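Fold it.
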Amino acid sequence: MGRNWIAVASAEHVRRGRAGGFMQVCHGKAAPLRRMQPGDRVAYYSPTESFGGKDRAQSFTAIGVVQDREPYPFDMGGGFVPFRRDVIWMGGAETPIHPLLDRLEFSAGQRNWGYQLRFGLFAISDHDMELIAQAMGTAVPVPAQPTLL
C-alpha cells in the first residue's frame, strides 16, 4: 500500500515545484526522495513564505502524487545540483495548519507539534492525508494497492 508524506519547504519554493511538476526536500538531498515510491501521496507544509525568511506561512501549500521517475539531479547553476522527484500536483488552496492541529494524528495533543517538521520529510497516516486534502478543497487518489497474483 502506498504511503503518505509531509515534506517541508518555503511556500516560494513549493510554488516553483508545483509549476514545474517536481519536489525537492532537505536542501536537495537524494536519500529522502528515495524513501518515496510511485503512487505515494505527499503534502507540503510551508513554515515561511520565503527560504530563510521570518515571514510566517504555517500552511499546507501543495498536495500530490509521486510519479514513477526515480530522483534525478538538476543543475540550478552556481554549482547547486539538488535532487528532484516528479509529482503530479492536485489543485487546492493553500491552507493554514493551525485549525487542523487538534485533528491531525501527528500533532493532536502535542505542545511541540512542529518538532517532526524539522526532519524535512516524514510519514503520516491516511487519516491525516485525507484531512489535509479536504481542508485544501481537493482530493488525492487512494494510495496504490499491491497487485495479487
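The CA atoms of residues 49 and 147 lie 41 Å apart.
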